[in-house]
Design a protein that fits this description.
The protein is mainly alpha-helical and 134 residues long. It has one domain. It contains five helices and two strands, in the order H-H-H-E-E-H-H. It has a two-stranded antiparallel sheet. The radius of gyration is 17 Å and the shape is globular.
């Protein structure tokens, strides 16, 4: 998929795509880093994908409270939450869209991930999955 923010002639015109193994290693690295920061006394908050898509308003509220935001709670309308273009620094190309952005679970990977790749991910993430509710 083309990167919407790529300049003409960019050396990285496509969005990065990660293998299942690399994604599992990144997941382990990020979670281990957050665990270490918490052990060092830095306040951290874990937001699981499953919890977020099940209750986006509640999870946004949790994040806002953690960050000390005392403003009005986020309310998802019929079309989703209204976002301005450029609301994120990196990630999904939808960050360049303005208007309502819906929140829905996407579990296509469960159906589409080859069994051997699933086994690889399970093996890589086994040491900590239980700690995070998986």
């Amino acid at each position: 998929m083309a990167r919407p923010d790529a300049a003409p002639g960019s050396s990285e015109p496509e969005m990065a795509r990660y293998s299942a193994g690399r994604a599992a290693v990144q997941w382990m690295t990020q979670n281990s880093t957050l665990d270490e920061l918490a052990r060092q006394g830095l306040p951290t908050l874990r937001v699981r994908y499953e919890d977020f898509v099940a209750d986006p308003e509640g999870e946004f509220g949790r994040v806002a409270a953690f960050a000390g935001h005392a403003g009005a709670p986020l309310r998802l309308g019929e079309g989703g939450v209204e976002l301005a273009e450029g609301h994120a620094v990196s990630g999904n190309p939808m960050r360049f869209q303005a208007g309502p952005v819906g929140v829905r679970a996407d579990h296509g990977w469960r159906r589409d991930l080859a069994p051997w790749r699933r086994c690889l991910v399970e093996a890589v993430t086994a040491p900590t999955r239980g700690r995070y509710g998986y």
